[in-house]
Automatic annotation (TrEMBL):
Segments of skewed composition (Pro residues): 1-18
Name of the coding gene: LOC100845502
Biased composition, class Low complexity, residue ranges: 50-69
GO BP term, pick one: proteasome-mediated ubiquitin-dependent protein catabolic process
Protein name, per record: CTLH domain-containing protein
Domain CTLH: 84-129, 465-509
Coiled coil spans: none
Gene Ontology annotations for the cellular component aspect, listed alphabetically: cytoplasm; nucleus
Residue ranges, annotated region (Disordered): 1-20, 38-69
Amino acid sequence: MDPPPPPPSQSQPPPLPPVNWDSLDALVLDFVRSDRLIVPPASPSPPSSPSSSTTTATSSSSPSTSTSSSYSSRLLIRRARRVLEAGDVDAALALLRAHAPAALLDHRLLFHLHKQRFVELVRRGTEEDREAALDCLRTALAPCALDAYPEAYEEFKHILLVLIYDKDDQSSPVANEWSINRRFELAGLLSSILRAHLQAYDPILSMTLRYLMSIHKVFCSRQGLSSPISDLTDRLLFEDRDPPAVPQECSVEAPPFDEVDIQALAHAVQLTRQGAVDSLKFAKGDLYQAFQNELCRMKLDMSLLDKLVHEYCIYRGIVEGCSHAHPGTSDLKSGQTNGVSFINKQGANNETQFECEMTDNQDGGCSTSDITHHDSWSKRLRRVRSSTSGQGRRKRWRGRADDLCYSCETSGDANLEMLPPAFDMDEDVVIEKKHLVSDSGLSDTRNMQDQKYEVILEMRDLTGKGMASKVVDEINSIDPDFFFQNPILLFQLKQVEFLKLVAGGDCVAALKVASSHLGPLASSNQALLKPLKETLVTLIQPNEDVLTKAVSLPVLASSLQLAISRRLGIKEPQLMKIVRTTLHTHTEWFKLQMCKDRFDHHLKIDSLKEFDPSASHSMSKALTDECGNGSSQITTCSSGKVPDEGSSPQVSSEVACDESAILKVMEFLALPRPDAIQLLMQYEGNAETVIQQIFS
C-alpha cells in the first residue's frame, strides 16, 4: 500500500520542548490522594507498614507534605470560609474555638471577626439581634479595639455608625462596612491566617499551576502576545487574591531580611517591595514559607481544576475510565457533587453530561471516531485486556465529596480527625444509578471510549518496557496505515528493537532490523541519517547500557500515546496543554530576567523539564517535531529561539554585573531586573554611576 501524500508544507513555528509527563503524573497522583479525589483502598495497610499509605501519597522531602491532619485542616479552612461568606460569624468563631484556638490569639483577626459579627447582627434587624449587637459591642468589640492595632479604636468608633445608617443607603459613611464584599474579604483573610498557622498548604500541583499561570499571564502581557491558553487560564486562575496575613507586630525598624530574598519574593508573586517585606515578616523570615503563603492567596476554580485533573488521570491511566467512575464523581460544570442525596434521575443526567463534556474537550465526543469503524480496530477494542497494568490496578475516581460529610457540629467535642474520608454507597443505590446512566443511551459509548483508552495505554506500557517489536506488530495488525503517517515513531521503535538485540549479543538479527527498517526510513528522511549512524556505532561497543543511553523510553512511550490518541480522535488533555505552554513561558521569562528561578525546585518545575541528557538529542528533537501533537500552535508565546530540551535558564554569559549592584539599581530606580542590568552594562556595572546619571 502506498503511503498517503505528505500534508502541504506550511510555515509553522518550531514545537515546544517536551515535558516530563512521568513527573507530572507524580504531582497529579499526589494531588488526587491529598484531596482524596480517588477511592481509598478497600483493605487497610499491612500492620508492618502502618505509614505506607502516607509515604506513597506524598513526597517526604516536600515542605508542603499532605498528611491526614493537613487534609482535615484544609477542610476546616474551607468550612470557615464558607460560613463567613454566608455571614455566620458565630459559626466561624465556634469552629476556631474548637479546632484552632491559637488563631484567636491574633487580636487583629479577633477584632475583625467581632466587628463583622456586630454588623451581621444589626443587619438581621430583629429586636433580639439588636440587643445581641449591643452586647457584642460592650463585651467583645470594645475590649478588642483597645489592643488590636493602633487604628483599631478609630475603626471601632466608625463602625458604631451602622446603628443609625440604613444598609441600603449607598451614600452613608458606612456603606463599605455594610457591603457584602466585607464578608468575602474577611473570609479570605481568615483563610490566609489559618493556612499559615496550621501549615495547611495546598498540594504542590495546585501551587505549581498558580505560579506557572501567573508568570505566563505576566509574560504575555509584557511582551504584547496573545495567550493560546487564555480560555483556560482566565477561567482557572482568578484575578483577585485573598488578603495577605499581616504580622501582629509592626516594627518601624528596617527588616533584617536579605534584599535578594525580598526581590525574589516580590518578582515571583508580583508584590510591591513593602508587600514582600510584610510577607517575610509574617513568615518570620522564612522565604519559602512566605512564597507558599503568597501562592495560596491566588484563587483557583477548584471545580475546573478537578475536571482537568480527572481528564488527565483517565488519559494517563491513573484512574479508571468514564464507565467505571465512582458514584461520588463531581458534576464540575455546576460546581456541585452528586452525593447520596442527589442519586436521582437528574443526578445521573448531570454525571453523564460531565462525562460527555470531558470527551468533547478531547475531540472524542460521545461518539466513536471514524477509525473505530475499521474491522481491525473494532476487534482490538473488543478484546479484554489481561495485562496486570490494566483497570485492576487503576484507582477509582470519587470526586470532591468530602464537603458533604463535613460535620456542621461546632461544639468543643467535635474532632475533625474523626470525619469520614468518604461516603460509601449502598450497592443497590449504585446499581440503580448505573441503570439510570444506562437509560441515557450513552453507556455503550463510554465503554467504547474506555476501550480506546485501554488500547492506547497498553501500547504505551509495552513501549515503556522496551517491547518495541510487539508494539509494532500490534499496531500494524490493527491499523496498517499508522506508521505511514508516523515514520519517525516507527524508526525509534525499530531503533529500540535494534539496540535490544545488540545489547543481547545478537548483532546479526540487529543488522537485519537495520537493513529492513532503519535504512529505508532514513533514506526517505534526511533528519534520520545522523541518529541512524549513531545507532550503528553501538555495534562496536555493545553493552547493557546501550539502550538506556541512546533512547528515552518514557519520552517515546508518551509520544506514541499522543499519536495513537490522535488516530482515535482523542486529543491530549487540556492540563497537558497548560503545563507545556506555561513551562515554556517560564523558561523564556527567566531568560528575560537573566537569572535562575529560586523556586523551581521547590515546586518541582525543574523535574517537569528534566530529561535524560544521555539520550540522543537529534533523535529526541526529530521525535518532538513529528509527535508534538500540534504543539507548534502554542508557541505564539515564544519570544525567540525555542530552548533546548531539558535546559534550565541560566544567567547570560554577557552579564558580568554584581548582584548587589543589580539590586541597588532595581530598588532605587524601581526598575525590572532586565532594565537594571542593561543600564549597568552601559556604565561598566557601577550602580552609583547609573543612579547619578538618572538623577542628574
